[in-house]
Amino acid sequence: MKSFFTSVLLLCFAGMLQAQSIIGTWKTVDDETKEAKSHLQLFMGDGKLYGKVTKLLKSAPDKLCDKCPGERKNQPVMGMILVVDMKDKGGYFQGGSILDPEKGKWYECKMWLKEGDPNVLVVRGYLGPFYRTQYWYRVN
User: How much is the pTM?
Assistant: First the structure.
């Protein structure tokens, strides 16, 4: 009986940890227009966090990234990896970059769950000393 209760407690704790994870699908919202833009799936690969577009909400599904630099230029935004090389710093992710496909620019990035609300992700992009903050919402 004691092991049963221990197992139940462990499962509850594991569920709480899962709820606190930023891994999953997020609805991105433009900080300037306040419009929902896309769904982006955050996932781990080689110990780093990445983010891939899984759904476009305002654009045609075959939209190309005409302003993107390098290998992403004129590639479909759908399926594109926009968040790269983010490192887990314990409580937040940092050290990687995020691409704004509308402007074709890369920004240094930091992400963390909003305090008190694990369904809101704070995404901050930096260009030198300047930054912009977006709030993304968990898709269930």
Answer: 0.83
